[in-house]
């Protein structure tokens, strides 16, 4: 059995990431590559580190020209150890490359910060001084034409750029985001994209997040982040070039993509790209010029990035290539092709919105397609169906975001006019040097606040607010990806301009959206005028809502109500602003206090219910803090008492209820309620019958659900003695079950000693001859005790109401 090659360095067991990317199997094929130079554009390298010295070549210090590129931060030394710490030297760890040529290019300050200019200069130096691979474990959120040109220069010179995506859990940084840069994210221990690893359409693959590597001062340390991921990929690329020295950078990228271990199950995803770096597969699996060779049908479409360069192959004129990509927003995708200039490609685009459109694509004529957010499909096929030879191609996709609904508002005089209210809107920077102006025409004094937030670190938002004719205020306190806030400020009638822009230097369109949240709270005027004293109280009409506000600290609003007859008055104060405590107090005509209530914490209303005799009454409203940006509402419901109840006036059974209540046959509920339309229970019905009929004799009853301690036991015992009520076969009475209209009729018939009649037809359309109570209904109808409903029905299974029961009982008593 073959034993895999593995270094003997004393700390190698701490390098768990080597097992995760299967380095031992890869080392069976190649252990180093000292025929090419790998440039590390970073903070420099510890030039005296014993584990790095054997593999270092001359570099440059761009921060302090003329000085050696020594590392005064540690970051560059961390990167160098992952790539090329010498192996089998009885020292420390082993790099992925046991032998290498590492060129330190110091382009980053000792605090880890760097400028775009120095970064670009470092890349160009590396390219011009023989580097084949440039490792960029750093990045910027901002696109620039300058850096894009340098990236193209490296590609043209046959130099591979490998860059970290970044560690903010946001958008991929540049230069990793450029189409020809190998963009590397981080994989967590659960084999998913690390939560802090930047993701998006530019990600190519991932590697382990945690490493153990070299540190300045000849030391070693544990490190993590995408900065430690990119060098793993760069080193494996060097091993690939050791095996395939004829390859070009795009082929190396294709090799790593096609050999990556798919972590998403979908081929490509914005979190993990094509998957986990597999060093063993890179060196052992055969390279395919046509990594997408099984994508000749739509259902086999290969997922690709919406912003990357990929390579593929047409086997002949009848070989279609199907791809699919996810557009992160509405917008457009540009297709650029590198192919034999004589050939043209037929492109069929199936958009996420369902539209299908054909295009003609060639090396000379790119195509820009509108896309909807979501999954699109591309079918690419040679127009020359008779072509017999194989044709390799490179396809570059680049995405641009949609123009928002407010566009053409790039100048103040073109400001988009918004309604004068609170609102939230989304916008984009869809063109070079884009900025958006909005205008809020305020006609009423109030308060204004504005929050500007973004969904990508590629924006550094700036907010500007100005009233026409006055000096404006610029808010730029946060950095990239952070929100800006114009604090709540008093505003007065006039036109207020709001400008949304990016910080200086953000020129091209940006893939991302900003959110502008405007809070405008107009200062309202109390519609009731001054009513801060009892003598100026607003006279209320019952049932009408009255709005008001308390714009003065310590102030009060007074209202009055005239009561003509004894009434239950229900006062409801609603619409209380958040975090405000309001107190509602009542007084009689001589301003003697009656009662008061304050809304409980967390509630926005308060209620009072009182019985008032005829006269004038006052309501006083106060609050623990002034407010003038929204109205409270006060309403008085006045319910005159009839028979001692506030809810029977005008009811069809008003007279009967008043009579029965006066004779103490039936009771009401609290708050002067009779609730005439509430269903009556069997126990309540027994109590009403016993009182109405004056029954006094009772017998001992035994029901499974009614004991001597039940409130209705005496009534049930007397009703049972009179043969009016009985239980069910299972021994229960179900005292709290609602009575049906058929049961009501039967109970009242028994109270009158009626046994029912069998002759004659059923008197109601919905009562059958086979129904258990049909005989009783026949007799009650024939003798005029019941009439039923106008449609000829009795509705025997409907629940009997309190009003219906007391009405039928009163008839029998009379």
From TrEMBL:
GO terms for biological process: proteolysis. InterPro entries: Peptidase_S8/S53_dom, Peptidase_S8/S53_dom_sf, Peptidase_S8_Asp-AS, Peptidase_S8_His-AS, Peptidase_S8_subtilisin-like, Peptidase_S8_subtilisin-rel, SLH_dom. Pfam families: Peptidase_S8, SLH. The keyword DNA-binding does not apply. Residues 640-698, 699-762, 764-814 form the SLH domain. Keywords: Hydrolase, Protease, Serine protease. Belongs to the peptidase S8 family. This is Peptidase S8. It comes from Paenibacillus elgii.
């Amino acid at each position: 059995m073959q034993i895999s090659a593995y270094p003997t360095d004393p700390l190698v067991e701490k390098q768990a990431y080597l097992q995760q990317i299967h380095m031992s199997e890869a080392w069976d094929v190649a252990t180093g590559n000292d025929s090419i130079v790998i440039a590390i554009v970073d903070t420099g390298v510890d030039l005296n580190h014993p584990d790095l010295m054997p593999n270092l070549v001359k570099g440059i210090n761009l921060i302090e020209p003329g000085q050696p590129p020594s590392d005064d931060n540690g970051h560059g030394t961390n990167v160098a150890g992952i790539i090329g710490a010498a192996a089998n030297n009885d020292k420390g760890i082993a790099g992925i490359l046991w032998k290498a040529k590492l060129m330190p290019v110091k382009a980053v300050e000792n605090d880890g910060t760097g400028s775009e200019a120095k970064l670009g200069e470092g890349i160009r130096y590396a390219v011009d001084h023989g580097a084949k691979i440039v490792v960029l474990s750093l990045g910027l959120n901002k696109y620039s034409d300058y850096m894009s040109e340098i990236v193209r220069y490296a590609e043209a010179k046959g130099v591979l750029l490998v860059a970290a995506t970044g560690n903010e859990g946001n958008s991929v940084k540049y230069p990793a985001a450029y189409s020809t840069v190998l963009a590397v994210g981080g994989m967590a221990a659960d084999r998913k994209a690390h939560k802090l690893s930047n993701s998006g359409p530019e990600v190519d693959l991932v590697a382990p997040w945690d490493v153990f590597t070299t540190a300045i001062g000849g030391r070693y340390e544990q490190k993590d982040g995408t900065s430690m991921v990119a060098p793993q990929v760069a080193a494996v690329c060097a091993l690939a070039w050791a095996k395939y020295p004829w390859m070009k950078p795009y082929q190396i990228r294709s090799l790593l993509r096609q050999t990556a271990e798919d972590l998403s199950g979908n081929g490509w995803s914005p979190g993990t790209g094509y998957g986990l770096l597999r060093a063993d597969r890179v060196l052992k699996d055969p390279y395919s010029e046509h990594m997408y060779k099984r994508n000749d049908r739509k259902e086999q479409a290969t997922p690709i990035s919406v912003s990357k360069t990929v390579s593929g192959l047409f086997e002949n004129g009848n070989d279609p290539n199907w791809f699919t990509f996810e557009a992160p927003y509405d917008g457009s995708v540009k297709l650029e092709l590198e192919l034999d200039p004589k050939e043209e490609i037929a492109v069929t685009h199936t958009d996420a919105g369902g539209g299908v459109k054909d295009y003609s694509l060639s090396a000379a004529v790119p195509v820009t397609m509108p896309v909807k957010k979501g999954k699109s499909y591309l079918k690419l096929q040679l127009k020359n169906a008779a072509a017999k030879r194989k044709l390799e191609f490179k396809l570059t996709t680049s995405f641009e975001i949609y123009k928002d609904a407010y566009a053409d508002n790039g100048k103040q005089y073109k400001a988009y006019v918004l309604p004068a209210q609170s609102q939230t809107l989304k916008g984009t920077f869809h063109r070079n040097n884009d900025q958006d102006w909005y205008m809020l025409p305020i006609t009423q004094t109030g308060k204004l606040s504005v929050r500007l937030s973004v969904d990508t670190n590629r924006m550094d938002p700036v907010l500007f607010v100005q009233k026409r004719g006055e000096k404006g205020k610029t808010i730029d306190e946060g950095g990239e990806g952070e929100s800006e806030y114009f604090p709540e400020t008093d505003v007065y009638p006039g036109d207020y301009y709001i400008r949304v822009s990016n910080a200086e230097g953000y020129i091209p369109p940006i893939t991302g959206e900003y959110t502008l949240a405007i809070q405008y709270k107009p200062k309202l005027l109390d519609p009731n005028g001054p009513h801060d004293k009892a003598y100026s109280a607003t006279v209320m009409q019952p049932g009408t809502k009255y709005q008001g506000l308390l714009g003065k600290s310590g102030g009060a609003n007074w209202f009055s109500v005239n009561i003509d007859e004894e009434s239950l008055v229900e006062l409801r104060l609603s619409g209380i602003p958040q975090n405000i405590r309001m107190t509602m107090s009542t007084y009689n005509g001589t301003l003697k206090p009656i009662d008061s209530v304050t809304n409980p914490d967390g509630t926005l209303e308060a209620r009072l219910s009182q019985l008032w005799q005829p006269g004038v009454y006052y309501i006083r409203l106060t609050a623990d803090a002034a407010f003038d940006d929204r109205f409270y509402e006060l309403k008085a419901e006045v319910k005159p008492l009839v028979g001692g109840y506030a809810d029977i006036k005008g009811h069809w059974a008003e007279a009967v209820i008043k009579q029965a209540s006066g004779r103490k046959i039936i009771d009401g509920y609290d708050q002067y309620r009779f609730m005439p339309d509430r269903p009556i229970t069997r126990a309540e019905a027994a109590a009403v019958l016993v009182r109405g009929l004056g029954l006094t004799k009772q017998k001992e009853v035994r029901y499974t659900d009614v004991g001597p301690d039940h409130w209705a036991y005496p009534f049930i015992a007397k009703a049972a003695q009179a043969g009016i009520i009985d239980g069910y076969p299972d021994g229960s009475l179900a005292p709290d079950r609602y009575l049906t209209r058929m049961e009501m009729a039967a109970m009242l018939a028994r109270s009158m000693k009626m046994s029912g009649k069998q002759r004659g037809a059923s008197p109601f359309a919905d009562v059958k001859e086979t129904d258990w109570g049909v005989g009783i209904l026949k007799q009650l109808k024939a003798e005029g005790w019941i009439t039923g409903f106008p449609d000829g029905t009795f509705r025997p299974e409907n629940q009997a109401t309190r009003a219906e029961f007391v009405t039928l009982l009163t008839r029998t008593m009379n």
